[in-house]
Design a protein that fits this description.
The chain is built from 5 helices and 5 strands; from the N terminus they run βαβαβαβαβα. The protein is of the alpha/beta class and 135 residues long. It has one domain: 3-Layer(aba) Sandwich (Rossmann fold), CATH 3.40.50.2300. A 5-stranded parallel beta sheet has the order 2-1-3-4-5, with helices on both faces. β1, α1 and β2 form a beta-alpha-beta unit. It starts with 5 loop residues before the first strand and ends with a helix.
């Protein structure tokens, strides 16, 4: 994975954020965290991020709504949904519409998380190269 990989994780469960912080630290990934969609949007206004991982169930707005907002404002950011409970049909539709790049169920396997982040980083790099060559 690129050394400069910057990831934002949004989850209202502190333990999930701490687990992801340990994972990212061990993988050499810069991680920003937010406990809510509003906090995450504020971070995105001021910090460059390549990948956003969001929980589905959050207090003020669900993860799909939040990731839809991210897609509209920062379409180059690769979006991943993380959830312990979500309808499979909802995930399939979000993937088909391009709302999310990938889905990871809670609890996740370390290898699955690593592979999904690697794929998301590759997708981000492909998109940004494509944007630069089309200018």
């Amino acid at each position: 994975m690129p050394e400069t990989l910057r990831l934002l994780c949004v989850d209202d469960e502190e333990q999930i954020l701490k687990t992801l912080e340990r994972f990212c630290h061990n993988e050499g990934i810069t991680l920003l965290t937010a406990g809510s969609a509003d906090e995450a949007l504020s971070i995105l206004e001021h910090q460059p991020v390549m990948i956003v991982i969001s929980d589905y169930q959050m207090p003020e707005k669900n993860g799909l709504e939040f990731l839809h907002d991210v897609r509209n404002k920062w379409p180059q950011i690769v979006r991943i949904m993380l959830s312990g409970f979500i309808e499979p049909e909802m995930v399939a539709q979000a993937l088909q519409r391009g709302e999310i790049f990938g889905f990871l169920p809670k609890p996740w396997q370390r290898a699955d998380l690593k592979n999904l982040i690697r794929s998301a980083a590759d997708q981000y790099q492909a998109e940004t190269v494509s944007e630069r060559t089309s200018l």
